[in-house]
Amino acid sequence: MTTSAPITPLSPTKQRIARHIVDGVTTNRDLATATGLSADTIRQYVRDIRESVHCPPRSKPQVFVHLLLGTGQVAPPTTDRPAPELNAEQQQLLKAVAEHSTPRDIALAAKIAPADLRSALDELIAETGAADVTQLVVLAHAWGLLGARPTGTVQSEAVQ
Known about the structure:
mainly alpha
């Protein structure tokens, strides 16, 4: 599904929740603890935030974070880590992992064999010093390696 609907700006409370998500707080329970809100309220706010950035409900956290950062709903964090020198294949994999949720779609977008995806991701994570793919996407935004969401489109991977 392609959407070109405008991005709905987040309220200050939703921006605070989105910032926690970008910072790595991902479970509703942890978000509730961090914000002092109930888990039910957090669940609804996360749904609202996903909807405002046109993020399908079953998208992986790194896709959600990419949309939050790429749409400007949350400013990229600063980092004192220097940006790594990524080759063209690594840059393509980085973009693919930020935009797709399923291993098959990531491999297809990165133009690598699905059997080689895990080792390529492990190598990219090691190269950047990220803890996981979500932090990789956050760091890539901080380094300016990932720009805004391309032309207002989102690939829907919610149908499985």
